[in-house]
Amino acid sequence: MSAASMSAPPVDLTPGRPALLADSGTLIWRGLARWRRDPGPLIASLGFNILIVLMFAYLFGGALQVPGGGSYREFLMPGMFVMTMVFGISLTTIAVAEDLERGVTDRLRSMPVSPLAPLAARAVADMLFAVVTLGVLLLTGLAIGWRAHGGVGATLAALGLILLLRFALIWVGIFLGLVARGQTAVVAVQTLEFPLGFLSNAFVAPSTMPAWLGAVAAWNPLSATVGATRELFGNPGWGGDSWAAQHYPLLAVLWPLVLVAVFLPLSVARYRRLAG
Amino acid sequence: MTRTDAIVAQGLRKRYRDRYALDGFDLRVPQGTVCGLLGPNGAGKTTSVRILSTLLRLDEGRAEVAGFDVTRQPDQVRYRIGLVGQHPALDEALSGRQNLVLFGRLFHLGRRRARQRAVELLERFGLADAAEQPVSTYSGGMRRRLDLAAGMILAPAVLFLDEPTTGLDPRGRNEVWESVRELVRTGTTVLLTTQQLDEADQLADRISVVEAGRVIAEGTPDDLKTRLGGDRIEVVVAAPTDLAAAVAQIRRAADDEPTVDVDRRMVSVRVGHQAGALVDVLRALDAVNVPVADVALRRPTLDDVFLHLTGHRAATAEVAA
Q1: Which of A108, A258, B42, B314 qualifies as a cystine partner to B306, CB 3.0-4.6 A?
Q2: Cα(B201)–Cα(B36) distance, rounded to whole angstroms?
Q3: Domain B230-299 CATH assignment equals 3.40.720.10
Q4: What distance in Å separates the CA atoms of residue A142 and residue A150, rounded to the nearest whole number?
Q5: Cβ of B107 and A112 within 8 Å?
Q6: Spatial separation of the C-alpha atoms in residues B202 and B175, rounded to whole Å
Q7: CATH level 2 (architecture), domain B5-226
Q8: How far is B95 from chain A, CA to nearest CA, in Å?
Q9: What is the pLDDT of residues A67-85, one digit of tens each?
Q10: What residue ranges do the domains of chain B occupy?
Q11: ipTM
């Protein structure tokens, strides 16, 4: 159509072979390039997380009693770190559902792209954003008076547990994006984020809930991570008599691994099943 | 099979729950030609394209694209096809150039060649000026052209176009048609699905009419039109008393027996593909002073094809009485 394409020698179109790592790398680049072009959703997500922290710290904070009489904000932040990991799932679900709906997933499937690469890239890109989110939240916490008292090793372990939980939740988010298509999926995920967070030990002691509810809260995967990181950060928290409450660090490792073991294969199977 | 068939489908069957989307679908498309798959929604056009482009597994039958079996050698097929679906499959947040670089790298061209190829294609599809704009700012026609460019990155042997002009205005449609013609000139084999006879007419060398999951008729656009009996001229006379004179004149001018609808004062006649038939008819009526209230030259529609081939209407919409 234009003379310009005639003047330059044609590009050699001999392709290389499909490769999981290279294809994932390309798709991670795509995720990052997208964010740079359109950072709105990320900024909104970060702003929302900061707002929630400030709301709890300054609005509800005065009315809430910390067990053992410690600093409320020190008590608050581990729960907040974990909540922000939960709030991020909808971004993952949206991204996966959008690619399906727009036909981008079909285009990738019609190309010689390693079949695991789109999901792997989604998980990695969203983990990168999780690190940024956690970093911003750490700074917010420090700004309102939260401190980690457990030493470098324990602090890093706590951050690792928080990110491990996010990694597990990302696979839940990917699966949900693949299963329930369109806007309904996103709304469902966003609706579930808050109850999932409140039905834990993040804000209220499970021992103050009705027995059955308290048991659910104690066994909530979020409670395990919140409880374990409170210990590692040296922040005040509430123990509990339940077996779960006595073993938060163990569960904080086990729960995410179980979630990954369930939802990663489910997601891959679901992706393969797109071929009918 | 001969070596020169770019697409071969034999006895394809695909079942969704209790319904066969494809039920004995056969197709052969010679290399370097454009085949139009014509049929209504739900006929199986998209299902066949999805199977041939390795997106869907087939239940029964055998399909080869560019010489490779879609079931056993899907990656070989994928390196040799381009797919352009009903809706542009692009990353809306990225620029046109970034989209092409992304897909070029996913075709494993490497970063450098992917970039060069993107520039080349943007030029060729008239998108160089908009290269750095995000796709979300593109018009419908521009999106389709970018989508086509993305399907052309490896200069594929076979290009699948699934209703490529759905939802486009006439200008956008012409832009896409022009691009497709350009690709065909370079030797690409094209399988085009469409619901519009004129689109198939514009682009296809041969047309396969699809209904209920199988190909029920096949031929060049002219073949199919001839089977339809070509165009019809419909004349509405101003006064009912002129009907008899009009029928006589029209019979003579069109050289065929007209049908008469007395209530609507309408005389209609088949005119095949005679250029100037309309002028002849109007002159003949003018010569005997029969005033004409309305006149129309009606081209065959997809509905007519279906009515003719299957004895029932393609569309679910009611035909005006």
Answers
A1: B314
A2: 9
A3: no
A4: 15
A5: yes
A6: 13
A7: 3-Layer(aba) Sandwich (3.40)
A8: 9
A9: 667 788 888 999 999 999 9
A10: 5-226, 230-299
A11: 0.88
